[in-house]
Amino acid sequence: MGYLALSTLDQQRLSQLKSEINRRLLELTGVIDIAILADHVWNLIGNAQVTRDEVARNLQQFMPAEKVESFLIWLYSRLDTLLDEYKRSVFSAEAAEAHKKEAMRCIQIKAQEDEERLRRRSERFAFHNLSNLYSNSSTNTARATTASVSNIANIAICKYDRRCKFGDKCKFVHIGRDGIGTMGKGSNMASKFGEYGILPGKLSDGMCRNWPACPFGNECNFSHPSVPCKFGQLCTRSNCSYTH
To answer: Domain C3H1-type, which positions (predicted)?
Structure first.
């Protein structure tokens, strides 16, 4: 039991036990220079081949039998106590680590759900702003205003923007660095702008529909909301779209 406990305990508890053995032997023997006897006891209980009875017989050379028995009862009881304390501390540490991992997992799931909600909200907000932009920019007639709203779903922004390989032949709207939306020759929407007098205007006034997964980052022509990252300083994503 002594050897098992000593081989299991951490360094802090081993040092504590050694100091307690010194004090206990000093109380029983009254010998001031007790260090040699304390080391001898330490070597005995740390030897896997030495039994409790052998420890008792060995110590009777230095103390009466009744004091040896009293000392060993105290010693092995103390070993049991320290070993139980150590096991509980290890279990608590493992449980705390498991709880921490589970908490982080829940935070990540919550952050992903929040990110998805923000993405959907940004898309709705961008569509609403774009609808208002085109409807307000038309000053001709009520027909133009109605047409701008009813046809807004057909006005699509090129997701490749300035990286588009089709150039002015692309059928989708391209956004210039000045924020003005233009359409190429391949666009089937040019007639809608001309027919109803709808001006493209500055499309950069709207929210980015691809945020937080926008590939253009700070170069995007659309607005990116300022939303704190759920992970704060723990965030490891180099391309995170949230603020830290």
So the answer is: 202-227
CA-based nearest residue to 214, from 145, 144, 118? 118
Cβ pair 9, 86 in contact under 8 A? yes
Domain-located, residue 183: yes
pLDDT digits (tens, 9 = 90+) for 91-118: 766 766 776 777 777 778 877 887 788 7
User: Please, what is the Cα angle at 89 between 86 and 91, to 5 degrees?
Assistant: 110
CA distances from 8 to 15, 73, 82, 158 (A): 13, 20, 10, 66
Tokens of 228: 């704190």
CA atoms of 95 and 88, how far apart (whole Å): 10
pLDDT digits (tens, 9 = 90+) for 28-62: 887 767 888 888 888 888 887 888 889 899 999 88
Residue 87 belongs to what domain range?
Answer: 2-93
Instruction: State if pTM tops 0.70.
Output: no
Structure tokens at 122: 């940004």
